[in-house]
């Protein structure tokens, strides 16, 4: 791997973004980066909470140009932002008008910097950035719920982008437009919306494209070839809306397992291959498959899987200083690929976010008046994109609604229980454990209060 | 019953059905936020509601409606937005 990579390897006239139908070239981007970089404070870390995808990319590029590290958190609850700020006292917050206007009710800190595209003319510095320097830090919920940091060197980021571009036919000549529906702060959204335009022959679309009609309009606004980068949940909503889509080169799905039936329906409706990415915040994207062709995953070039003496699997990513443990159990295949063997039972993934049930249980037990309690994942969690958790709680003095309100201050919305069922006691065994079978019997008992 | 209130109960029933909520439609307070404090819905639910609305009322929800019109600020806002934009 070379010692440095430029901020972008694309030509000045290349298109890297679309705002509506308006094209933003690399030249204009570099002018916008220079303008923003000159406004950044003299601090080491940038927490990038921009909602507009182009603003988010400007934040990354300006921070990296100034040798700052960008912090990437898909969780913007007050609790998580405070936790990150406590861990990185030397940080500043980047945000934009969209992030503030959004209905989440979130308010940025008073000294947050508002990102706008304010460059003059075309062109600006395109710095060479050391491959070994940490460019971004992603966060997951650690085993006790605290943010666990996953640093990624610039070289690893560029290497992964180029490997993904090679896999999906995005190396040029010509520019492919990616309409990516995932927030830029999600690692999958980051890679496809922010990293790709810098080091692959792609242009992203600023959004918003959350609802089906917006996704369809964005696709119609941009020239072919087009790739829709999305999630099983949004794919299902888009199919259900019956919006007509222009011709697509492919659909790429990630964040949750894609059911083969849904993949097949999408391939039939949109006359295009549906491809799926496997990855995680710690490692980024590492493998892909065509869902309708079978359940085997093919690793990106350069990715290595190793099994240690305790049967744990670790991933080697080019440019990363160390092997990274894999969160899922896998079986190796003779051709170098792998098959997933199901998730580890403590980890649940909803809306593209992971949490450990034991950390959720700990938060539940901290709720005043809860004497015992447990989060339960439904059986169809891995196949139903809209599946939700539920809670059984022993709390004689509290109502289900009160428990939910208390959890709301601590838990990200997707992990909030859809039902809180109050029970007289939990069927713990002699060592205090709750088995799945015992919990199943609870589900059949009449509830005291279904809230 | 005024037509606005009739629309609110119709939309409340739609939400309960679309999201499989274990509550009666009349238990959704017309003024309480649907997201966050209040009913506690999130982005997954927003997509489900958008799908149900497009099927029942023939138009599509948008992020701009969510920002400018604050359609999820309450059942009342959502019902008014649907009444204004419905094509069936």
From TrEMBL, chain A:
Keywords: Ligase. Coiled coil: none annotated. SUPFAM superfamilies: Acetyl-CoA synthetase-like. Pfam families: AMP-binding (PF00501). Residues 89-298 form the AMP-dependent synthetase/ligase domain. PANTHER family: LONG-CHAIN-FATTY-ACID--COA LIGASE (PTHR43767:SF8). This is Acyl-CoA synthetase. It comes from Teichococcus aerophilus.
